[in-house]
Design a protein that fits this description.
heterodimer; A: 431 residues; mainly alpha; Cytochrome Bc1 Complex, Chain C; B: 191 residues; alpha+beta; 2 domains; 3-stranded antiparallel β-sheet; 5 helices; 21% strand; elongated; binds protoporphyrin IX containing FE; binds FE2/S2 (inorganic) cluster
Chain lengths: 431, 191
Amino acid sequence: MSFPWASQYEPKNGLTKFLDEKLPLPRLVYGAIGAGYPVPRNLSYMWNFGVLAGFCLVLQIVTGVVLAMHYAPNALVAFGTTEHIMRDVNWGWMMRYAHANGASFFFIVVYLHIFRGFFYSSYKAPREMIWLLGVVIFLLMMATAFMGYVLPWGQMSFWGAKVITGLFGAIPVVGEPIQVWLLGGFAPDNAALNRFFSLHFLLPFVIAGVVILHIWALHIPGSSNPTGVEIKTEADTVPFHPYYTAKDGFGLGVFLLLYCAMLFFLPNYLGHPDNYIEANPLSTPAHIVPEWYFWPFYAILRAFTVDFFFIPAKLMGVLAMFAAILVWFFLPWLDKSPVRSGHYRPMFRKFFWFGLIPTMAVLFYCGGAPAEEPFVMLSQLATAYYFLHFLVILPLVSSIEKPEPLPYSITEAVLGSDKKAVLGENTTPAV
Amino acid sequence: MADTTGTATPETLASHGEDGVRRRDFINIAAVSFAGVGAVAVVLPLVSQMAPSADVLAESSTEIDVSSIEAGQAIKAVFRKQPLFVRRLTPAEIAEADSVAVSSLRDPETLAERTKEGHLDMLVTMGVCTHLGCVPLGAAEGENRGEFGGYFCPCHGSHYDTAARIRKGPAPANLVVPDYEFTSDTVIRVG
Ligand code: HEM
Ligand code: FES
């Protein structure tokens, strides 16, 4: 959009001419995801996950609206209507499995999207705003998924709601009133279920709004790419359509294969059997765990077992869990290296693959394991490294590391040489 | 809007006084304040509708007849939709609770402070673990009562003693004793 060589939309017939004058929507689409949007020619499959996440959001909204036609958010009947969807509603079982597994796949896609950002430092200037909006989307997704999981009103729904809203009880003085206010009662009950439904219906549309801002912010500098070298000339780009519509289309096919395999052959693999037992406020399941996508953060929450000076352990856990995500907001300013791509940052790369990734794996595993040794100790070590990585290692590495030489341009990286650059042709700098 | 900083021309003087204050400033401030008060007035009900409604609060006191509980037995009742444990302690359990040095406890309280005068054997507590809110075991016959013979929370392994005080595990505090009173010798009203 901001590149001078971007091809311009030209309405061809009466209808499109009419539209272009009254409401230039086709022009917007053409410039945003059509032939009018020049994109780096070297994007790898790691750049597929944004489009896939958008697809997941639509999938969740469509299946969710369908579920909402058959579901009733009342503590007396919620569990029953969920079973009614599973047994009586035509294709109800498929809609529910599609929605529940859709949430999991949404998180898989978004986690890969975020880790792409970590490795290629997509958060760096000029793309800070895209990143910040992305973190907001992730927080909204977590809230949405948490409240959605309460809706079937099974044992895990109930006790998950209890434990998570109980976290607010850790805040000194105001914590308990806040918890009672959030639940509209002293424990999760009808009031809580009903408001969770209302918000669970609303938030995805808020997410859609923030996604629009996210993409708007993206279209100002355009996509980054695996070299992290900015676009210099037209030779560095190809139009989004047909090149990336095709590549994203292929990615979507692979995604759908995996998703359908899960949906039709292992629909309950990621769920918990306890959630097929109706909520019972008087009996706790033996092992309460959140959905898998919350495990790393749940592990951080439980890693704090002793009081820290005057701060009680429980509050420390809550603060650390929120801080673990909030620290992402500061990433653009913590990592000061001018080089974006991890491919040219030898030291950063080592800390990424041998530090951050194993740490996340350990946190992930421990979050799903019972709170016993050795998992508690492992969570503690991993939590310590997690914060060390973002707050100490990244700033330090960016000041002492000697990056490897960067290619002159994307074209040189792809073709081995950038003839046009050498000949001094077509070197109008991108604006 | 008129330029508020530039030099005085006949035109700007009309709207700015000599001192740079515009006559319209007052109306601006008045309008914004009024709208602000209005906004607060709208937010208040929006916030307050989330708090427990009248019917939820109406359920918030419960009467329990404790006469049928034998020494060494406990019952599970429901208070504010949460489990409530009512236990009649045996003399041995009372002695055990009293033998602990209170200062050595994580949440120091004596059994007498946790019960009503003249009813040292009636231990009324919430059945809600103070860690993350699970229901501890030990109220029903045959359940694991933990290393200290009171209650045991299986979620993350919190052990409570015969006075339902936290002794081991991650929970920060003793099982909560709700507000209650004996309305007669055998009936308590909780809440
Ligand atoms: C960001 C997008 C969304 C996410 C991540 C999400 C996530 C979830 C999750 C994890 C569940 C629990 C599934 C289960 O265990 O059964 C759920 C249930 C539900 N969701 Fe969503 N959801 C999203 C969007 C929506 C939308 C837009 C609607 C309605 C317009 C909706 C309506 C429902 C309903 C009615 C249920 C209860 C039925 C059931 O449990 O299957 N969801 N959602
Ligand atoms: S909730 Fe009881 S030990 Fe954690």
